[in-house]
Amino acid sequence: MQYPNNIKKQPQKIISYANRGMLLEDCINETNEYYLETNRALIFKKPTPIGISKASYTSHGRRIDEGYFLAPSTLDYNGLYKGYYIEFDAKETKQKTSFPLANIHEHQITHIKKVLEHGGITFLLIKMNNFVYLLKGSDLIEFIETNQRKSIPYHYLEEHGIKMKEQIRPVYNYLDAVDEVYFKGEDYKWKRKS
Description:
Layout: E1 2-3, E2 7-8, H1 24-37, E3 42-45, E4 50-58, E5 61-69, E6 77-81, E7 84-92, E8 98-100, H2 106-117, E9 121-128, E10 131-136, H3 137-146, E11 151-153, H4 154-160, E12 162-164, H5 174-182
Parallel strand pairs: 7-9
Antiparallel strand pairs: 1-2, 3-6, 4-5, 6-7, 8-11, 9-10, 10-12
């Protein structure tokens, strides 16, 4: 188009990128709010335990000036789903070919093993190459124990993980993937005993 003073402007295309660029954790928090509103599950982000070493008071209340971590956190999210304890962590990487195991701390791996030992549901949600995969905790532990690699190859996520579709609300309906992995079929391991 030609505007006065010879200013040229191209009509702008309206492109919706919906949730692109939104951090995975923000998407999971939004999804958990949806699950709470629809009474599908009770899943919350765990607060990181922080000690306060210096605080001051302002007109708005107490302000933390200095703090420290009391203990290493386990996994970021926990709660209840279908009567089962559920705990998971959300991880992102910009790597294209593999997910670095350095992104998972040793105390988190130990914690995943403990959740599995007690019959809980545990997994990672891994965002890689613009897709989010649910990787069962047992598959993660098996990979770590049977491989010398320092990263999980992308093809392993594609083969063993459940790829989730991005939607409007909830953004990542990870409980559908949980149903597919843990509650599928008549003889699933997680069937409740009466």
